[in-house]
Amino acid sequence: MTDQLNIHTHQNVGHISLNRPKAIHALTTEMCIAMADALAEWASHDGIAAVMIDHAEGRGFCAGGDIAMLRNSALNDQGKTGREFFHAEYQLNHQLFTYTKPVVAFMDGITMGGGVGISQPAAFRVATENTKFAMPETGIGLFPDVGGGWYLSRLPGRIGQFLALTGARLDGAECHAIGLATHYIASENLARVKAAIIDDPANIQSILDEASETPPEARILANRETIDRLFAGRTLEEILAALEADDSEWAAKELKTLRAKSPQSCKVALRQLADSLTLGSFADEMRMEYRIGSRVLVSHDFAEGVRAVIVDKTGDPQWNPATPQGVTDEQIEAIFAALPEGEEWTPLN
């Protein structure tokens, strides 16, 4: 299945290019395993000094994981192939997070879900005018996984909670402003930058610094105070009440957005971000997310969310429970509980 990926070495640089243009380069299990194998080989290869991750043609860096496969798995094999995908994907996320050689991710286009998981662990994260970054999982009954709990919970103020709940899309300038991207470079200059890195991988920092330009104004910064105030609540109910009590147009828009999301997913996301700050390592994060993933994968809301948003495109998911009040603490607790021995997520050896 490596036609879904272009894996090469150029001089002293390993290069992974995602190649599923029709699916906006969404990840499959085979892609995750092939990427992990290449990274493992390069990690122990003295001749490889750095790794670049980008995408072949098309408008997306990586639009996530293979959602259709996950839904089919939930409906047809009790989630077995879906769990195998999560296990392999999270191993790849953790491998990148702990990688000893510098990794450069070029987030030139749609960077969502799984694309966040393979770009955020990179030491160098390049955004462009084409970047559209989001974790839109609450809209399909899933949750911001692939390390989303770790990255979002550590953003300034309550921006992470806002992004996790609403699935708001950020442009490249916004990613740069809040630290999701380390550099902002015009897409027309990327080929030159990649060639320079291949020629001189020891100087990635200065190559990227020199090619960077001042990004446009970041809209999210103008809303920073409002986000911190209205998303300050610890619970979903508190956040909805704050939005309801505010008479601004912005609050009305976000309230409408939130009311369309899976109440269970929203509660899971808030708990996940809060718990993440107490974890000692990224491996602990992935273990927690795998517990959540293996359960929400086979929940009513995921199959229903994918049906409404992606399969039938009717945009009318019937969530169950239908209200935040209907999602009990016991239900959330069960989603986060430890898995039976032998079923927990483990990092690559």
TrEMBL record:
EC number: 3.1.2.4
Enoyl-CoA hydratase/isomerase domain span: 13-336
The keyword Hydrolase appears for this protein: yes
Catalytic activity: 3-hydroxy-2-methylpropanoyl-CoA + H2O = 3-hydroxy-2-methylpropanoate + CoA + H(+)
Coiled-coil residues: none
Matching Gene3D superfamilies: 2-enoyl-CoA Hydratase, Chain A, domain 1
InterPro entries per UniProt: ClpP/crotonase-like_dom_sf (IPR029045), ECH_dom (IPR045004), HIBYL-CoA-H (IPR032259)
Keywords assigned by UniProt, alphabetized: Hydrolase
Keyword Transmembrane helix assigned: no
NCBIfam families reported in the protein's UniProt record: PRK05617.1
Record-given protein name: 3-hydroxyisobutyryl-CoA hydrolase
Source species of the chain: Alteriqipengyuania abyssalis
